[in-house]
């Protein structure tokens, strides 16, 4: 019956993982993984999550369905986390202007927002940073939204092309959806500075663009999830000052709570007033109901405990700090080995200024292939490496291997 179904191209990251699994070299290194690993190269369940699991095991009374848009106690906690730390965010919440719903982690939340935009935004175009997380493009396109790119990464300076970015936003039509990574841009690790964000928000306001904000790595920039809300606060200010009427936000607890497979995240839409919010909420429920009916509950119950129980919350802040400290140690160690120990002729300073779980090395596709074939070092063809895959045990081999292929 399905003889005419064509073979779909393999997923790049999953394909890489298969090759890695088959590799018998004992020195092999997997730098494709987008999940945290300890210094022993192992997955990590955070102590705060262990604590939440214990509390949940004792207090859970049912495994019933959550409401279509997620459990109210979870939504309350997430709103407190995201909006209660700045006066503008607080004001938006107090005025009932923020609709928040649990989605299926960051991806599912983006997908629901994308369906909402396709239905209700009169302009079906979106502009995305070049490059961006590949799934952004697929998610929007699946909803029928036409995507194009705005300039973002400058391959000459390994930094942000702020002039190109501003110019491209300026030439977008009103109501075009403009997607931004709020912190720790994936794959480049390059973010706008706070001053540059002011500039960006001004253009959003002038050109009447619809900001779609993605925050998958809250906490990974500074090590503190609250401090990493600074850019979101700027958007809250812009809304309360009447500069922009709305923004849409997708966030995920996959990385900062290590709840990857539990699929915990939310979407929020900022509205003009509580009446508009009510209508938007009703339409979000209509989007979700025929897609998956209601979100999963185990992970969101854990996140509710983490955010709501003072002792667990304090532990969570420590856990995030610990992860980020290790990632940054590996970042510096790799840099030091390359530049000092191996005296690499290549300029690697960008490794130090990039933020988050990844480093965008600047290695080209040919060098990436050589690293894989000759050294059993696995990374995506754009030269992005996950710092989580680096340990004190393999960083020397990694630096030596990178140095060798860049001298070829
Ligand atoms: N946005 C970006 C930029 C990401 O890197 C990711 C995770 N790879 C996500 C969203 C969503 O991930 P998840 O669905 O696991 O929350």
TrEMBL record:
Its EC number is 2.6.1.1. Its cofactor is pyridoxal 5'-phosphate. One of its GO terms (molecular function) is pyridoxal phosphate binding. Residues 27-402 form the Aminotransferase class I/classII large domain. Pfam families: Aminotran_1_2. It catalyses: L-aspartate + 2-oxoglutarate = oxaloacetate + L-glutamate. GO terms for cellular component: mitochondrion. SUPFAM superfamilies: PLP-dependent transferases (SSF53383). Keywords: Aminotransferase, Pyridoxal phosphate, Transferase. GO terms for biological process: L-aspartate catabolic process. Belongs to the class-I pyridoxal-phosphate-dependent aminotransferase family. Homodimer. In eukaryotes there are cytoplasmic, mitochondrial and chloroplastic isozymes. NCBIfam families: PRK09257.1. This is Aspartate aminotransferase. It comes from Brettanomyces naardenensis. The lineage of its organism: Eukaryota, Fungi, Dikarya, Ascomycota, Saccharomycotina.
């Amino acid at each position: 019956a399905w003889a005419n179904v064509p073979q779909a191209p393999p997923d790049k990251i999953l394909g890489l993982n298969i090759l890695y699994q088959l590799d018998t070299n004992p020195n092999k290194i997997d730098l494709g993984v987008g999940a945290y690993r300890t210094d022993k190269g192992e997955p990590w369940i955070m102590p705060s999550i262990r604590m939440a699991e214990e509390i949940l095991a004792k207090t859970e009374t049912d495994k019933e369905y959550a409401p279509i848009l997620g459990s109210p106690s979870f939504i309350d906690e997430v709103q407190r986390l995201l909006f209660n730390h700045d006066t503008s965010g607080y004001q938006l919440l107090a005025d009932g202007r923020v609709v928040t719903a649990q989605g299926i982690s960051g991806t599912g939340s983006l997908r629901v927002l994308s369906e909402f935009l396709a239905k209700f935004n009169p302009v079906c175009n979106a502009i995305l940073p070049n490059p961006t997380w590949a799934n952004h493009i697929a998610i929007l396109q699946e909803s029928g939204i036409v995507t194009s790119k705005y300039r973002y990464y400058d391959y000459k300076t390994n930094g942000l092309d702020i002039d190109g970015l501003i110019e491209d936003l300026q030439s977008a039509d009103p109501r075009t959806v403009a997607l931004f990574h709020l912190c720790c841009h994936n794959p480049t690790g390059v973010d706008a500075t706070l001053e540059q964000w002011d500039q960006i928000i001004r253009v959003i306001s002038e050109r009447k663009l619809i900001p779609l904000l993605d925050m998958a790595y809250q906490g990974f920039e500074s090590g503190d999830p609250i401090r990493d809300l600074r850019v979101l606060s700027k958007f809250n200010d812009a809304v309360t000052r009447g500069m922009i009427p709305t923004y849409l936000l997708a966030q995920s607890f996959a990385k900062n709570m290590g709840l990857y497979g539990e699929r915990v995240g939310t979407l929020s839409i900022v509205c003009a007033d509580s009446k508009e919010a009510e209508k938007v909420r009703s339409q979000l429920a209509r989007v979700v109901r025929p897609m998956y009916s209601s979100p999963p509950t185990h992970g969101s119950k854990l996140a509710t405990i983490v955010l709501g129980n003072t002792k667990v919350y304090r532990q969570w802040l420590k856990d995030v700090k610990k992860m980020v400290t290790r990632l940054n140690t590996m970042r510096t160690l790799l840099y030091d080995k390359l530049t000092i120990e191996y005296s690499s002729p290549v300029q690697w300073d960008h490794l130090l200024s990039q933020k988050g779980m990844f480093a965008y090395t600047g290695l080209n596709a040919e060098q990436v292939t050589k690293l894989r074939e000759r050294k059993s070092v696995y990374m995506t063809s754009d030269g992005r490496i996950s710092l989580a895959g680096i340990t004190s045990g393999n960083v020397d081999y990694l630096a030596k291997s990178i140095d060798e292929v860049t001298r070829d």
